[in-house]
Specification:
The complex is a heterodimer. Chain A has helices at about 1-15, 20-30, 105-115, 130-150, 165-175, 190-195, 200-225, 250-260, 290-305, 310-315, 330-335, 350, 360-370, 375-385, 410-415, and strands spanning about 60-65, 70, 70-75, 120-125, 155-160, 180, 235-240, 265-270, 340-345, 395. By secondary structure, chain A is an alpha/beta fold. Chain A starts with a helix and ends in an 11-residue tail after the last helix. Chain B has four domains: about 1-125, no CATH class; about 130-200, no CATH class; about 215-260, no CATH class; about 270-470, Uracil-DNA glycosylase-like domain (Uracil-DNA Glycosylase, subunit E), CATH 3.40.470.10. Chain B has a five-stranded mixed β-sheet, covered by helices on one side. Chain B has a five-stranded mixed β-sheet with strand order 9-8-12-14-13, sandwiched between helices. Classes of the chains: A alpha/beta, B alpha/beta. Chains A and B meet through helix 2, strand 1, strand 2, helix 3 and helix 13 of A and helix 4, helix 5, helix 6, helix 7 and helix 8 of B.
């Protein structure tokens, strides 16, 4: 049985060119939302040996017409898979074209793309062939060869397979800048229904292993300069949004638990998008892309604006769904009018961050500017993108929103004019 | 009016020396006019800045500038805006009395400086992102990598270190309209400007990159605005992959139009709620290849609110011709077993997981072919609508395909037969083999499997008898 399958794989490899297989395996990888290449250790190859560099900020080398950044060569080693997860285009029962690269081929592709300044590095994932551990070893071999055989100093992100042996997950972090394990669905019930081969406990176990290894690695590097680095860009995860009935509040709470529990750098949300040959267990209606965007915004509010999950719950309203027509911060402000208006000349940073229309940069600018002057509305206008959205919520020396805040139609006033947002979404 | 001329527009040190001298001599900003040598109308007529008679030494004073200003001025001077030099001088002048000037973003001069710096930084970043090398084979050794790039501002020199640190082990040249940078593996050299044509016209690896760009794009989520914001059109002419963008956008729009023409995804329509609507919908369904093969659909038959729904896999050719489920050889065998088990077929609703006949033509014969998991999953939407309409109190699933249609996963019959499996809505489901399986067996296997099939039916029969007592108390 196994050999028949291997034979089959060999066949389609001999028939397909590198370009054809690249197209199949990049196409298969595009449902992974993450593309970041930032936040890793600083490296360069000024010494004339090796290839590549990394800085704090990743670089997006191109953008696709779907608006997404292309920073890494994002590939599957193979899209053959023994699992049957309903939301996944590569599931066993899907009739997509299958292909496979050898580790060597992926190494060569990565290097030749990197030398031409197409990419910052590699993001490698895989369908599961034979066993989870076998697949994981193949992924690790790519990263090892890049680092050891070619002295590659660019970015490597490995998708880790939670069902593989823990020792392999740890090895992955030796070579990779970032490792990630997808929690796939926000709830255990969702996972049981849509990804019958996966288990929440196993996924979280693997994430725990990575967290411990990262902590241990940091601890070691603090004491010994030569200690090997372990995944310096940390670990991240991804959740498919809209494939089951989980509401936004539940998703944000789950994400917040994951951030806390596993020290994650990022939780990515991927709006379930109707995939070719999708399974009928899924809702066939596409969740609006805007929902994914609102979830990222609330993620930001929690990570950089001092919001709590209960603030997000307040913004989401009784149904637990964030409004699509206005952003979550404005939604929260409309539900929390008692704390407004905020005096831009006196309010502390935490309060300024709560004002709709003020981002972290604008808040820093206001804090800097008010050391020099008392702010008028026109000063504020110079420091922010738009003062229109701001006005109902703030006071300055020459501005006071006397009645605005009490108006019942404030939301209608501030919501963007309806337009056809996603003609082809 | 003093005219101060900068010979090289990105020479910060020259500007700083001259500006420091002019400030120390007390020349207020309105007395000084800064020019770039290349941009003055008459290059040679303009008197060199240093020829201006120095102000009396008594008025000379120490010129101070803080770190923040120097950092920002280093970048701002690279901007193409001719007014940048006057702005920098004005800020340096004001800094002498207002050392915290740059800390106030609401100040118009400080704001203008921030803007210049931001635009230069962005240009530096975009050059790092959008520059593309092509490999040029060399007679000996590894290839040389050449790139043509047209920056908005004068950032070439300032950016050279980035490319050296990243690609120190390969030889490369960056060609721009202003100057050329060469890295030979050891040192960085400058040369006069070059032309776009000096870069090789082709690189085989570029075809792979173009293919990658086409494939990584998700046509289901077109966001052209977001793309253009980060990758403005003016960069496209030097990005090989950008030539494909119009075709990709057009393709995505066509794909969407085709989806609308062939019927939007089912969930956008409400599920049919009458038998007629269900029959019409199934007859017109073209959502999977079986629906498109030109055969007539076979609908379920039997009473509504039945005690039992019997689910098969798909119609065969007898069923297709008569338009009724389970009337071929497998249907006859099923009828015989139902009768023996005491289940009245007339009281059950009988239907299939897949509503059309899938076949392979072999000469004149149409050979039955199993539906794929994917086809079963597609047809599941109809089955759910049918179940909602028929409301059976129990279900008997014949074969793994029927099981998949109800459970959403392919069950193992050997492990899961013999006890009811509750469906999400609570309906109990029994799983057994399809009668056509029994027809294919002979000898001991046939006897053994027939016995197991009978046992499964007996369990269902017993359940129906219990239910019957509950529902119609004698």
């Amino acid at each position: 049985m196994q050999t028949a399958k291997e034979e089959h794989i060999k066949n389609d490899m001999s028939q397909l060119s590198v370009l054809e297989r690249l197209e199949i395996l990049a196409d298969a990888a595009k449902y992974d939302a993450s593309c970041a290449s930032s936040g890793t250790a600083k490296r360069d190859s000024r010494d004339g040996k090796g290839l590549g560099s990394t800085a704090g900020m990743g670089i997006c080398h191109a953008y696709a017409p779907d608006g997404r950044c292309i920073s890494l060569l994002k590939l599957l080693l193979t899209n053959h898979c023994i699992f049957d997860c309903h939301y996944c285009v590569n599931r066993k029962s899907s009739n997509v074209r299958r292909a496979r690269f050898t580790p060597r081929e992926v190494v060569d592709l990565t290097l030749s793309f990197y030398r031409r300044n197409y990419i910052e590095g590699l993001f490698l994932s895989s369908g599961i062939v034979r066993t989870a551990s076998h697949t994981m070893e193949q992924l690790i071999e790519v990263a090892r060869s890049l680092r050891e055989d070619h002295d590659f100093r660019g970015y490597i992100h490995l998708k880790t397979i939670p069902e593989a042996e823990a020792e392999l997950v740890e090895r992955a972090g030796r070579w990779a800048d970032r490792v990630s394990i997808n929690v796939e669905l926000p709830t255990e019930q969702g996972l049981a229904r849509l990804a019958p081969d996966k288990k929440t406990r196993q996924i979280e176990g693997a994430m725990g292993t990575v967290r411990d290894a990262i902590v241990a690695g940091k601890d070691a590097s603090a004491r010994y300069r030569s200690a090997p680095r372990f995944a310096p860009a940390g670990q991240s995860t991804q959740m498919v949004v809209g494939a089951d009935g989980t509401n936004d509040t539940q998703i944000v709470e789950r994400a917040s638990t994951l951030y806390r529990g596993f020290g994650l750098r990022r939780v990515y949300y991927s709006a379930f998008s109707p995939i070719p040959s999708s399974s009928a267990v899924l809702p066939l209606k596409r969740p609006p892309l805007l929902r994914e965007h609102r979830l990222y915004q609330s993620d930001w509010l929690i990570r950089f604006y001092g919001f709590s999950t209960s603030d997000v719950r307040r913004a989401a309203g009784p149904e637990g769904m964030l409004p699509l027509d206005i952003d979550p911060k404005l939604a929260w402000a409309l539900e929390s009018r008692e704390v407004f208006p905020v005096d831009l000349n006196r309010a502390p940073r935490e309060m300024l961050l709560r004002v709709p229309g003020l981002g972290t940069k604008a808040v820093d600018a206001i804090l800097a500017a008010r050391r020099h002057r008392t702010l008028r509305l026109e000063d504020v206008a110079r420091l922010t993108v738009s003062v229109r959205k701001l006005r109902p919520f703030v006071t300055t020396t020459d501005w006071r929103p006397v009645t605005l805040l009490d108006r019942a139609d404030l939301r209608a006033q501030l919501a963007p004019k309806p337009k056809q947002l996603e003609l082809f979404a | 009016m003093i005219v101060a001329t900068l010979q090289e527009p990105d020479d910060f040190e020259a500007w700083r020396d001259e500006a420091r001298r002019l400030v120390s001599q007390g020349h207020a900003p309105h007395e000084v006019s800064w020019r770039d040598a290349a941009e003055s109308e008459d290059l040679f007529a303009a008197p060199p800045a240093h020829t201006f008679s120095p102000a009396p030494a008594t008025s000379a004073r120490t010129v101070r500038a803080n770190r923040a200003f120097l950092d920002q001025a280093h970048l701002a001077i690279l901007h193409r805006d001719g007014a940048r030099l006057d702005l920098l001088y004005r800020i340096l002048w004001r800094l002498q009395d207002e050392p915290r000037l740059l800390g106030d973003p609401a100040d118009p001069d400080a704001g203008a400086l921030h803007r210049l710096v931001r635009q230069v930084r962005r240009d530096i970043h975009k050059m790092r992102a959008f520059l593309r090398f092509r490999a040029m084979p060399e007679d000996t050794g590894p290839p040389r990598y050449l790139a043509w790039f047209e920056p908005d501002h004068r950032i070439e020199r300032a950016n050279a270190a980035f490319f050296r640190d990243r690609f120190a082990s390969q030889r490369w040249s960056i060609l721009t309209p202003r100057l050329t940078l060469h890295w030979d593996g050891k040192s960085l050299n400058e040369a006069p400007p070059a032309r776009r044509e000096d870069v090789p016209a082709h690189d085989a690896t570029e075809d792979l990159w173009l293919g990658y760009y086409r494939s990584i794009f998700n046509p289901a989520r077109l966001k052209v605005g977001a793309m253009v914001k980060e990758m403005p059109r003016r960069y496209w002419k030097n990005l090989p992959e950008a030539a494909q963008i119009p075709a990709l956008i057009a393709g995505a729009q066509q794909r969407e139009a085709a989806m609308i023409a062939t019927g939007a995804p089912p969930a956008d329509e409400p599920a049919p709620t009458t038998r007629e609507a269900l029959a019409d919908g199934i007859a017109q369904c073209r959502r999977c290849p079986i629906g498109c093969n030109g055969t007539a659909p076979v609908l379920g038959e039997g009473p509504l609110d039945p005690p039992l729904l019997i689910l098969g896999e798909q119609p065969g050719d007898t069923e297709e011709r008569t338009g009724r489920p389970f009337v071929g050889p497998a249907g006859e065998l099923l009828n015989a077993h139902l009768t023996r088990a005491g289940i009245a077929r007339a009281q059950a609703y009988v239907t299939n997981a897949v509503k059309h006949f899938k076949f392979e033509r072999q000469g004149r014969r149409l050979l039955h072919q199993n539906p794929t998991a994917n086809e079963i999953d597609h047809c599941r939407w109809w089955l759910e609508a049918e179940r909602a309409l028929v409301r059976p109190r129990a279900i008997l699933a014949l074969g793994a395909s029927a099981g998949r249609a109800l459970l959403g996963r392919t069950p193992s019959i050997g492990r899961e037969r013999g006890c009811p499996i509750p469906l999400p809505d609570g309906t109990p489901m029994w799983l057994t083999v399809h009668p056509s399986y029994l027809l294919r067996l002979n000898g001991a296997a046939s006897t053994r499997e027939t016995e197991r099939f009978k046992a499964d039916l007996a369990l269902v029969s017993a359940h129906l008898a219990r239910e019957n007592r509950l529902h119609t108390p004698a």
